[in-house]
């Protein structure tokens, strides 16, 4: 299992779980729910933030937010 912050550009992953903290509800409200497929679209030049596609729309996350999302990488 990896953290979303460890997934490279163009890679897809399935959300498996979250670290239990105050970001949990915020992330779920943004469409980051277990079982959802996410794709890393871009990583900013300095590495933060990252842009992902989830639930049919684009979302920017700070690396510290992406660190709280556990994923399983999907092979193409």
TrEMBL record:
Pfam families: FeoA. Keywords: Iron. InterPro entries: Fe-transptr_FeoA-like (IPR007167), FeoA (IPR052713), FeoA_core_dom (IPR038157), Transcriptional_repressor_C (IPR008988). Residues 2-73 form the Ferrous iron transporter FeoA-like domain. GO terms for molecular function: transition metal ion binding. This is Ferrous iron transport protein A. It comes from Filimonas effusa. The lineage of its organism: Bacteria, Pseudomonadati, Bacteroidota, Chitinophagia, Chitinophagales.
